[in-house]
Amino acid sequence: MPIFFDESKKTFNLFSKDMQYTMYVDQNERLCHAYWGKKIRALDIDHIANFYKMAYGSNLSLELLPQEYPAYGGTDFRSPAYQVQFEDGSTVSDLKYAGYKIYDGKPKLDGLPATYVEDEDEAQTIEIYLHDGIGGLGVTLTYTVFEKFQAIARSVRFKNESSKQIKILRASSANVDFEDDDFVMIQLSGAWARERNIVKRHLVSGIQSIESRRGASSHQQNPFIALARPNTDEWEGEVYGFSLVYSGNFLAQVEVGQYESARASIGINPFDFSWLLEPSETFQTPEAVITYSYEGFNGMSQTYHKLYGTRLARGKYRDAERPVLVNNWEATYFNFNEEKLLTIAKEAKTLGIELFVLDDGWFGRRDADNSSLGDWFVDKRKLPEGLDGLAKKINEIGMKFGLWIEPEMVSPDSDLYRAHPEWCIHVNGRERNLSRNQLVLDFSRQDVCDYMIKTISELLRSANVSYVKWDMNRNMTEIGSDALPPERQRETAHRYILGLYRVMDVVTSSFPNVLFESCAGGGGRFDPGMLYYMPQTWTSDDTDAIERLKIQYGTSYVYPQVMMGSHVSDVPNHQVGRVTSVEIRSHVAMSANMGFELDLTKISEDEKVKVKSYISEYKKMRKLIQFGNFYRLLSPFDGNEAAWMIIDEKKDEFLLYHFKILGMPNAKNKRLRLKGISTDKNYKLEGTDEIYGGDELTFEGITIPYRHGDFQSALMHFISI
User: Fold this and answer.
1) What is the pLDDT of residues 329-368, one digit of tens each?
2) Does residue 367 carry a catalytic annotation?
3) Which residue out of 94, 132, 177, 471 is catalytically annotated?
4) Active-site residue among 177, 541, 542, 544?
5) Are 249 and 271 in contact (CB under 8 A)?
6) Over the range 112-148, which residues count as b (16 or more CB within 10 Å of their CB) and which as e?
7) 508, containing H or E segment
8) 471 noted as active-site residue
9) pTM score > 0.90 for this model?
């Protein structure tokens, strides 16, 4: 079994594949962190405990001791994992060990997304009970160890076991105290249209952190950090990953203390957050998934990809090939009618595209972004036969029909807002600031959630909808709710996320045959929480192929390619004005879930021939592309090239992608060493007579021919013989 408790030494050992995580209870009944890393044959806990006794003497300060879930108020002056306020106003607490329970399987988290198991034999769970006897606070630390993954799912449940109110001020989902600080911190940062760029920095004394205060996980920071040893690369070195299964305000931080130890934590952002617990009430934190790799960043990514791809995503489309789609947004924006849409759809069908998606502008009086959000009824000026009529005509062409919605938002110029101005996030007496001419509906309210469930369900029953793009185009400001009393106003942002999860759970469960794709102005909510309900996300509003190299490369640190939407768009590109070939645009899109976002009736006949060829090629390799193992070779953050591979599980087939960004004069051919393939097999390069040994490709490499000009790409398909 993967979890063992040594009663004599009060030691917990958690084993997962090649990983070990060890805790122990000290002489003062505190739960201490002992070890996290590669499996050790016989870890003697006395060696660890004695180290701290010898190093720091009998007057051991808690600031020197690695703790599993540290408190505020004692002799530890570092940031705590949690903090509460008791009814007398005090914020000092002290958790002592109170017992444990081990069982097979993995529990669901009430109202929250989380990883899961399909069979109890896949994982084992331990709950460790801690208690503050003076304050009447109970805390349960939950750890699920997956047998096939080097990962542990962690969460925390608070319970008010007193007869008085307790207010939670801080509630991390996971905390790890490392005994040293010799790490590089990796984060995925950026902005709208340039999400998830890789940022690396050496730890220094003090706090280094990423966070969101925007009501969403955000374009600016992804709810993920990793700590890597300084010389770690893609293939070698130790990496510790922290990923939060949550879509709202979060904080991930590492504090280096005066004794050069590092404390890492991740969870709900304590900024502007509190939660009031009445007697006997509980509060559940989101889940954090922590991973360990001794095989570099690739090892970490492989764990997240497989775990999130098979035990986070759910439903019919988790394992199903995703369709090639065309979206009309960049083709028409708001200026369309049924005839124009059908013209694009007919052209798309001749090219081999399978799904037509109608984007923004089909409802209310939506001729621009300044009205009608919330009024989810068809604009008969544009679609005289309604959604049902359009869907039937799209189906008659031989394509499936998809639809864009933005159900979390409301326009001040809408029937819904005029009827219910109290239904938006706001603070009475304060200005209601607009972004993209819209406000955020208050999903912390049950009546708003019930209304939206009913509205979306009726909409999806009104036509043969096979796909939904669920968008969210602004962050929260003036965070407050008419439905909450003053002492609970700081619960609004988290209650919003809980309400959103409830709406998504009901809607996606009610329409299991619909493929849902999440979106938040592109990649503003590309997080594990959303991927629990919707198995893919629109990666970024930036459709430029060159920018997408960085965006998709960074995204791959945590998320598999099957979760990324990637489209071929028009040139000059609408976001950056860059002109690139249809070849490189297609090759980038063919690295993930391929789609198109342009007016296909306006491209040249030569481009149509190429597009048709790329779509046909993609369909033949689609299962491999979407579900194969992804390996990064060359980083676009480090130079003028990018390269990656996608390999099937048996290593019988793989794809090699290579991208050159800018042309160089008098450049020579380069050789690229491949990774992840079998050195014992021979591989044929499709479309040629060339045969390579897997060992040759691994140790000697393959020649990447010089290609003249900027923005060049190559896609090579190899099959074992």
Assistant:
1) 999 999 999 999 999 999 999 999 999 999 999 999 999 9
2) no
3) 471
4) 541
5) yes
6) bbbbbbeeeebbbbbbbbbbbeebbbbbbbbbbbbee
7) helix 492-510
8) yes
9) yes
